[in-house]
Amino acid sequence: MKKVLTTPISAEDLAGLRVGDVVYLTGQLVTCRDVAHRRLIELGRELPVNLQGGAIFHAGPIVREKADGSYEMVSIGPTTSMRMEKFERQFIEQTGVKLIIGKGGMGEETAAGCKENKAVHAVFPGGCAVVAATQVEAIEGAEWKDLGMPETLWINRVKLFGPLIISIDTEGNNLFEINKKTFNERKSAVLERISQQVKFIK
After folding, report:
1. Per the count of CB atoms within 10 A, which of 104, 147, 150, 158 is most buried?
2. Tens digits of per-residue pLDDT, 44-102?
3. Residues 6+ apart with CB under 8 A from 164
């Protein structure tokens, strides 16, 4: 059975999730990346959207404005989450966001923020931006449009958005760091095996 998170998300909704689990999101999903994080944390500007119990997507979508003035999602793929690492711990604390979605892993600060505030980070598969757009039922609003299309806070209504792989859970466990340690432990034996096969090359 699919595990579906529905906004607003509570700490209880996330309590049983562990790194590597796959979930889907239904409800509100707000795109929020570099400049929006900087405005909140460095410039102290209040976000124009309530993220308490909410979900954000580190993404720079392509959006089409229709003749009636409404918007249509064309493509919405994840951007590299690590770019937000220096802001995310404070961002989680200040906004009450519960689900952060992006590409690749995040670091110690985000892991600490997730543990302190009972939030999670999840990875959306890269290369699926057009498919992801089909999971956006409607764009319900757009804030900070002065930042340009990629950095605008696009407020989306989504249904079964995913798959999302939990990479940091509410205990601060970090899938990418766990995997890095495992791979490094295995590396020496693999390199030794390879060097035996190619040692004739001078």
Report:
1. 158
2. 999 999 999 999 999 999 999 999 999 999 999 999 999 999 999 999 999 999 999 99
3. 22, 23, 24, 25, 99, 101, 122, 123, 124
Is there a contact between 114 and 172 (Cβ–Cβ < 8 Å)? Answer: yes
Tokens 């992801």: give the residue: 132
List the beta strands (DSSP E) in 89-152. 99-102, 120-123, 136-143
End-to-end CA distance of the chain: 55
* pLDDT score at 202: 65
Cα–Cα nearest to 88, from 79, 100, 70: 100
Q: What angle do CA 81, 22, 60 make, to 5 degrees?
A: 30
CA distance 172 to 74: 34
Catalytic residue ranges: 37
DSSP string covering 27-92, please? EEEEE--HHHHHHHHTS-PPPSS--TT-EEE-B--EEEE-TTS-EEEEE--B-BGGGGHHHHHHHH
In 3D space, the residue among 121, 128, 110 whose CA is nearest the CA of residue 165 turns out to be: 121
Q: Which CATH architecture has domain 3-174?
A: Alpha-Beta Barrel (3.20)
Nearest Cα neighbor of 109 from 97, 98, 121, 99 is 121
